[in-house]
Fold this protein.
Amino acid sequence: MADYKHTLNLPQTDFPMKADLAQREPAMVRAWEERRTYEKLREVARGRPRFVLHDGPPYANGAIHIGHAVNKILKDIVVKSRSLDGFDSPYIPGWDCHGLPIELQVEKGHGRPGQKLDAQAFRAACRAYAQEQIELQRADFKRLGVLGDWDRPYLTMSPRYEAQQLRAFGRIIRNGHLYKGVKPVYWCLDCRSALAEAEVEYEEKISPAIDVAFRVTDRAELAARIALPAATLGAVPVDVVIWTTTPWTLAANQAVALRAEFRYVLVRARRDGEPRALIVAAELLEACRARWDLAEVSVLAQFEGRALEGLKLAHPFQDRQVPVVLGEHVTLDAGTGAVHTAPGHGQEDFAVGQRYGLPVTNPVGPDGTFLPDTPLVAGLKVDAANAVIIEALRKAGRLLHHEPYSHSYPHCWRHKTPVIFRATPQWFISMERAGLRANTLRDIRAVEWTPAWGEQRISGMIESRPDWCISRQRTWGVPIPLFVHRQTGERHPRTDELIEAAAARVEQ
C-alpha cells in the first residue's frame, strides 16, 4: 500500500495537542501572578472611562461550591469584557466575615461564649477562623482564573471597614432614622437572636390548626348591640370563634379582631347533641358548619363587625377578659373571620394593639421556653405547649376543631428551622422617619435599570418592607456603640462624638 504521508502539507506547531488542564491551568494562574497581569492591565487602562462592578461578597465559611463558581465566573466575564471594550474595569474582591455561621463553627470547638472562652477570646477565635476560610476561598477563586486585586480585598472584619460602618451608623442617627422599640421581630430559637426580613426563607410547614371559642361575658350587651331580643338567646352561652395555626400564642392573647365592614352571623346549632350559639363571618358559615359537624343550624342575627367593637370575651384558659377589636388584616381566605390577636407575637397583631392600647406581652424566652409565671404552659417549649393548650381547650369545651394544616411558614435561612415572632427590645431603622421610604423610591426612579423590570421589582420591595431590625443578640459582629439613659432610654447627648471616638479607636 502506498504511503501518502510525505505528500501531506501538515501544520507544524509547538501548541500542545493535549489540553492537560489539570496541570496547565495552575501554571497559567502562576504565570499571571508572576507577570503581574492584573496590575499591568490597570496601568494600561489608566485614564480610560471607568466601569466598576461592585461585588457582593461571599461568606467566609466553608469551601466554594457551584454557586460561588457561577457567581464569580459570570462577574469575571463582565469585568474582562468591559476591559476589552476600552474601559478601566478594576475588580476588588471581598468577604463577609461576621455573623452566626462563623460563630457556630467556633462554638463546635469552644462552646458558647462564656463557657470555655470569654467574649474577647471568642471573637479572636472567630476572626482567626474567618481568616483561614478567606485564604482557602481566595486560592479557589484564583484557580478559577478570576483576575482581581486578590492581595488587597475588602474584608468586613478589617478595622478600617468596621470604623466606616460605625461612621455610617452615626449618619443614620443624624438623619433621624434610628429608634429603639419593643415590637415583634422574626426570632430564631437556634440562633437565639432576632433576624432581619432578608434572613428569613419560606418553606412548607405542618401546623396544628384549631378553632377556638371565646365566650361572650355579657350576653345582654351583645343582644343590645345586634338588636336581638335578649330572650332569643335563652340560657345558651355565646362564643366568638377564632381560627389559628399557632395555638401556643393563645397564652399571650389580648384581643379578638373582626373586620369592621364584614357581615357576621350569630347562629344557633347543635354539636354532639349540645346546643351552641356561635358567631362567625357570614361568608364562612357553610365551611364552619361542615368543619365543626353542626346540626340544626339557624341564623339568629346578622350584623357588621363594627357592632361588636369593645365587647368583652373570656380568655379560653386564663382567668381574664379580652376585647373585640377591628383590624384591616382580617380576611375571609380561611378560618372564621375572627382573628386571635397577640400583639407580642405578630406584626399585624402589634399594629392593631398599638391602636387600641393593648399590652405587648411576650411570655416566651429566647430559647422558645415559656417563662415561669405563664399559666398552664410555664417551662414548656412552644411546640410542646401546642399539645398542652389544645388538650386544655378540649377539656374546657372550647375546642371546636383540630387538624394538621400545611402552609408556607418563615424559616431561619441558616438553620432551616421555623422561626417565631417575638416582641423584644431591638434597634430599628424606620422606613418612614425623615422620609427614608419616599426618598429611596424617588432615587430609584432616577436610576437607569437593565432590565427595565428591575425598577418595578425593587420599588415593590421598598414600598412593602417593614422597618429594618438591625440589632442581633450575638458576639461576633460590629457592635452598636450607643450609650442610653438607664431610666429614660434616651441616647447620650454627645452620641455623635462617642461614635466617632469609637470608630477612631477601632481604626487604630
About this structure: The chain has three domains: 21-157, 171-197+416-507, 200-411.
